[in-house]
Amino acid sequence: MTSQHRPWAFHHWHGNASDFHAMSLDAGRGLWWCSVNAPAVILGSTQSDSDINGDRAQERDLAVVHRRSGGGIVYVHPTDSLWIDVTIPRDDPLWNDDVSLSMLWLGEVFVDALQPWLTTSVYRGAFDRGSDGRLVCFASTSPGEVFVGDKKVVGISQRRTREGARFQCVLYRHWRPNEWVDVLRDDVAAQRILQLPVQCVNAESNEIVDSLRSQLDRA
Fold first, then answer.
1. Which tens digits make up the pLDDT trace of 93-122?
2. Using N-to-C axis directions, what is the helix angle for 205-216 and 104-113, rounded to 10°?
């Protein structure tokens, strides 16, 4: 069966980041646009609350959330970021048993979807944690993620189960790290995060989502 015979279900979910991460998404082909109602810092599955100054996060009205996929902290915001989850079942033609190759197809979809605004490329080298990738997702480089030169555009993490894969993707319409990096307990790393090369996408969220949906149909 070829991929075009399997339609993509579309879901637009509104709510807080914690509730969305707690959801068990259907294992079929799906695009989930998560519109959060409040800013949050989301820790990867192996990270500890000790990476975050909880009191400072509370002062900034930042929710501290855990996800079940790996990687470092991701910051999400109601308007500055765009958070999309993509799911595929294990028997999908897009599935790849090799984890190092498993996100490449999705990166290519993003490259095509972002063409109206940016000329991007998919990183195909080895995973590079860099100085701060254990702490913050956008400081690492993973195969399948999308870049303009050395500037990351789309960060992707994934969770794989017996049923399928859930790819969690974030890009930024505005990158304002000064609004959240001071909640990191590592002050030296926080200063480096302020200088991270991040490429924003100058487009409305619904425009990006519509373009992505169109490209997924052609995957």
1. 999 999 999 999 999 999 999 999 999 999
2. 120
